[in-house]
User: What shape does this take?
Amino acid sequence: MQIQILPPQVRDQIAAGEVVERPASVIKELIENSIDAGAKNIEIFIENGGKDLIRIKDDGHGMSPEDAEKSILRHATSKIKNIDDLFAIQSFGFRGEALAAISAISNFELISKISKNNFGTILKISAGENKTIEEISSNNGTDISIKNLFFPTPARLQYLKTNSTEYRQITKEIFGFALYNYEVSFKVFNNKKLSFDFPATKDPKVRTQKILKKSSDDICPVSLKTPSLKISGFISRPENCSQNRTSQFLFVNGRRIEDHRLAFAVREAFKQSAGIEHGYYPAFVLFLEIDPILVDVNVHPRKLEVKFSEPGDVFSIVKKSVSQSLEKASSIPQNNFQPQTRVGEFTKYTEPGLNSPSKKIQQTAGSFFSPTQLVSQKKSNKDFSERNFNRNLFDSDENFNTPETSNNIEDQELGELKLIGQVARKYILAENKSGLFIFDQHALHERQRFEMFWKKFENKKIPTQKLLVPQTIKMSETEVSILNENKKDFEELGFKINFPQDDEIKITEIPNLLENENLEKLFQNFVDYFESERISEHKIKKILRKLIEYKACRGAIMFGDKLETKEMQKILEDLKHTKFKWLCAHGRPNYIFHSFDELDHKFHR
Ligand code: ADP
Ligand code: MG
Assistant: This one.
């Protein structure tokens, strides 16, 4: 084949792929431009996940007819003149590529007016061709509509996800801008309905609350300054963590970035200062201000990642700022706080005269999801265990199968186990010919129940039951659409769900397994689980596993329950048929073994 020079239109369409991956990338470029233009009011209109329409209207400085014409050319920018400018750039956009790219792959229309002119300009272009420019009467500012994104590149169109997934990505992008630019008013219309209204405010906390949907008490301020870095922003209280990352926002010099290491730094701080463990995600909105010389924002074509010249420093400063904020908020010395607050430890925690947090904790104590470990002594152990377990529902990314690996304890013959008794209402002591066993009564019983249920359900049709009274649950439109997208999976699991309204679901049939469970809370978990998008393969099996774990735990003997000899003997007896004796369903050990040899050795015998 002969070498050909590609025509400009094709070149632009190829280049467009670098800048524009999906509707959310268009949103990002256009809002950047509006903010760079000094807009105070931005209105965004989305139709069908942005596939049909993305429109952004601003009241910024606008463009003259000449600039409007130039704006859609490649490398057309008013923001930099030479390469040195790149390193000191303060504005958001600077590559002069966005409008060129977007107009090459859509039906593009731009209306813009500068205040000193009486008339505005309307420019239309379709897939980079048939450009028209005319005068039009319009308001000051710029109004850009993108219809049929990717229509000239059907292959790209195919990569797009469902409308609601694309819309979620779009909102994440908008939230990013709205969090930083709180003095700008944002209105978002989705399919012609107003779905977000963020009025301009002088207080970043007000905007943050609005976007994270939290009350003032639910978030704590973060603030730390070092010679090279300034951090400000907000984090959720530990008891407000959720199971997905949708409420995590990091900014470097006003630019939203995704940096897994820094997100991890925040989680580490939550883990060390508040005992929040794997699988729970604090909400955070953190603004890092750093000398532009020390970061390279130009490493990623879509500018989501940045490179720090001293990444280790940034990591530890972020962690420190969050830890300080948590400690201040809890006013509990860290040492007291930490050991009792591990996931899965069912130790009763004595609430140390907390100030404001205690009120909050009391309020959230009954919530299905609440990852709080600070629990009032008035609450029974059972409550606590359940709640603690709830933290684990849908949590880990572990393999959905029962673990098939072997370990030393397992390999060893259990032989005849002789019951010694119960200690502390928590542990069952038993001996065999070679040593002493200490079983965690809850963990072991839970494991046994898990295996029993799992055997029943694996590869079989799941028994279901019709609800005498169908249950209706109110949810946000996005939440309903997430469930609707996964409708088939729910049917496979034994649910029958109708979607009578945009903002409610109606459950008419459920798997037997879930009789008497709180469906509202359960479905909230589903939404979070699906939203986190960590599940794709073996989805049904994974969810089934989680449901069974849930069920296994709920019915199991609790830490703190006094046990009769007969009950303990039954558990030891069942151990013979328990396939994976050494781990509970969440991966904690079920028992500790001390051989008599080891004990002798310790006593210098
Ligand atoms: P960049 O933002 O990197 O300069 P773009 O392709 O996004 O490149 O925009 C090209 C130019 O068009 C900008 O430099 C700016 O001068 C102008 N422009 C784009 N959008 C707007 C807007 N909303 N208001 C005013 N000017 C705009
Ligand atoms: Mg731009």
User: Anything to note?
Assistant: The two ends are 85 Å apart (CA to CA). Residues 332-411 have pLDDT under 50 and may be disordered. Residues 29, 33-34, 37, 58, 60-63, 67, 71, 76-79, 93-100, 142 surround adenosine-5'-diphosphate (ligand 1) (CB under 6 Å). The chain is about 35% helix and 20% strand.
